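Please describe what follows:
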Amino acid sequence: MVDKKFLEKAEVLIEALPYIQRFNRKIIVIKYGGSAMVDETLKQDVIADCVLLKLVGFKPIIVHGGGKEISRWVGKVGMEPKFVGGLRVTDADTMEVAEMVLNKVNKELVTMVQRLGVKAVGISGKDGGLLTVDKKLSDGEDIGFVGEIRQVNPKVLLDLLDRDFLPIVCPIGLDDDFNTYNINADDAACAIARAMNAEKLAFLTDIEGVYRDADDPSSLISELTVSEAGKLIAGGGIRGGMIPKLQSCVDAIANGVNRVHILDGRISHCLLLEIFTNKGIGTAILRDAESKYYSEG
């Protein structure tokens, strides 16, 4: 008699089959940040998920942050991190440190992917003119070399995907005068997903997803339409850092991205659980006219 645990493994694979068929050869942009970038076990799990997505036919693109690591290195060199409106004040010296750290993180991720047998290429928004930016202000205040994306040139990413590479992007861009700017990784992921007409955009965060009531952890919303998201924002149910993140999700869908997922990156293999199971673990944000995302099985 076959051991029950092996039958359960087979059932998991069968459950994943329709999702693999549905999204084969489709682009998924993964914004990688939070605890999943700090905890070594979680880091390995996220990279393994991305590699598996690539091997079963997806076209993943990783866009990573590195804020915690940047702050650590800024402190190491005796500088004091400063923030205005949640945005890092980035003078020329801080920008130099940020670019160094982000490139270091980028190549570490490339190495982890290639160790698992998939070809990866790490680039920044400076490469191939990928991300062109303007100076970003915080409530009218100049916060230094912080960029707001004006244009995305997806050709370099399309070329890498066509040649079977997994692109890994760090959020640094250039302005028209070729000055280097740091970019919020959420903004970079959204802009890239829009420009690539991505099927999916997934945010790895340090929360379970979107709550109907920010003070009630049991009010997690599994699926949310664009209209429902707008009502939540307007009604005050969403607070703090989730407001710009959710607004970015809505904007991404309005600009051609089919689905956006907000996931708890503290859960091992959260990407696989959300994308390949009948009942995901985070919040999937859908177009108003779209049919139910998850199967009823």
